[in-house]
Amino acid sequence: MSRLYKGFVCMKRREALETIAAGVLSLTAAQRDLLAQSDWEAQVLSAGQARTVDVLSDLIIPRTETPGARDAHAHRYIDMMLYRGLLAAERDAFLAGLAALDERCQRDFARGFDGLPRPEQVRLLTAMHDSGDAFFRQVKDLTIRGYYTSREGLLEELEYEGNSYLTDMPGCTHEEHHQ
Amino acid sequence: MSGPVYDAIVVGSGAAGGAAVYQLTRRGLKTLLLEAGPDIDPRVENIHHKMPFELEFRGQLSARDRLRYRGNKSTNVYNQRTMLPDSEEPYSFPDDKPFMWVRSRALGGKTLHWGRYSFRFSDYDFACASRDGFGINWPIRYRHIAPYYSLVERTIGVAGSKESIPNLPDGEFQPALPMRCGEHILRKGVEKLGMRLIPTRVAVVTSREFSRPRCHFCGHCNRLCSTGAMFSSRVSFIPLAQETGKLEIKTDAIVREVLTDDEGFARGVSYVDRGSRQDYEASAKTVVLAASTLSSTKILLTSRDRNHPTGLGNSSGELGKNLSEHTMAARITGIAPVLRGKMPGYPEDGHPGASFVPPFVNVDNPEETDFIRNYSFQCWSGTSDYPGHAHRLAGFGADFKRRVKNIYPALVNMTTNGEVLCRPENFVELDPDGSTDPYGIPCLKIHLTFGDNDHRMIRHMNDKAEEICRAAGIEILSHRREASQPGWSIHEVCTARMGSDPRMAVLDGYNRSYDVPNLFVVDGAAFSSATALEPTLTIMALAARAGDHIADLLDRREMRKHGPRETLA
Prior knowledge:
The complex is a heterodimer. Chain A is mainly α.
């Protein structure tokens, strides 16, 4: 059983204890990101593949004035999904696409995608985007999902404040929208 | 068979079963409630305030569970405990007619995670066949059901606004919730075209003085409500019925058949205990099926015997036929330009409701368009816990990221509920291949496709939705024009319909079987037409009304009396 899975079980157990103790879930309990642990290890991706996926996610959603996909460990999310989150056909398609990208870079540049200069990476990715490449679509969708469901993407970038207790639902209070 | 003889056995504990046991026990009847799933109190062991990054797979189902719940598209990690894996009750459909059958097995049924929309039907709906000549009329009129709408609204708590719309009667409402920015902008376009956009009427407590807590606006009601502010039978009807001391509940009790006696009356039901796989029987003076439209229909089809070779209560031949639901098309995500980059200052997805365009075509003139019947729009807007629009934006990089954020508070969404016509070629049957579930109960084969009228209506909804967006100045980001997969609305109805003519209908105007006088079907199967409105409030009102009628019949000792039924409508 993977470490991730153990983490989930522990959390459920902790949550059950809280529930028994408090009657309702305590929102002040630390909101722990399951993928942020320091001893993370990939379940599916090799070290080289993990580096490539990390670079791809960073190109798709880079750090700006707010954190990017790399800060949010998007490649860890993708590894988790490859391990037990995606259907076999989806996983196989992703790994085949990743292998094809690596092969192409080895052929044309004699090194992996992650070893290319940034402008070359952007040029390659742009060509894949423009041609409707299926692997690009898949890695982009997974990066979006991994980033915007992370603490960094959801709370810092989107400034999401929901899932909380409000005393009222304010609705729209802008006169100009009502006219 | 030994054991107690109940006044009534109710099969199923969702909206229909909840309302039925509430009224039966209030009338003093000793009632047994059988639920096929476990008892899960949504208020404990609830993970619904968890952020996605606190959950494995970020709150999505694992690959394994996606396969286990393939037919049950509403399943998520938050409600999974209440949902039925496909293997527990397999079903089939013709290869070219895929059908999505969403089922819950838990005390409270689908009300544990339902959409909460609660609208009264009107005589525009009940007298539908008189207006356009298609199908059959309902055997009741608004005046027959209005007191029960009030009873249900007062009991469960429905937030809404009085609007005086002829085909959408006002109810007994708790305070309505205000609309969000994007909905107000959409409203201006809707009103330019002569329609109305009103706050959705939702079964959520908004009053500070009610028997259940007021909504705390966390949103995500479909994850099971942790305080019970959202109505479910589990937190409302069932505990209220228990307070009478008249209710007995058996969970994990999967009903096989309705049992009949030599005279052709129902004498009880047989059921299997899910844990022990032991078979049991329970006896009652009255049997009330409330297991959901297709499950109740399946029980009747399975209960066929020598006297009822095509299913119990099927002398009309209509049992299993006329399957209907709502078609959802015009699934639009748009952008209100003035809201770009303007964060609302509060989490807009904390809203437990949305807004609604009541049915507007073919109302005053039933032949206004090239199709009959009508449809409604559901509309919602603003920020949420997942920016799904990001998947539809081209590009990548810093500019892509900025556009996702810029559009995030400006999103406006629409979809529809359109009445699918009841046609005999849309039907359910016991699987002709003879397949059974793990308990040996026959499986259902479901046949549903949309017809010509449905497709003409779908074209109209798509065009009208775009017209609304143009009038409101909303840029369309994506528009899915194709009809939803059959079953998607989770509003399947009409497979044991009520009607005034026993040759055309399974049930009379009190949800009572024409063939078996002490047998009632009180869920959506009883509907005579789907209408363009969410079915649940009407299911509950009809079930409560049937409960009253059962008590009256038992009082008058008329339950076991065959003969003509009074015509109501």
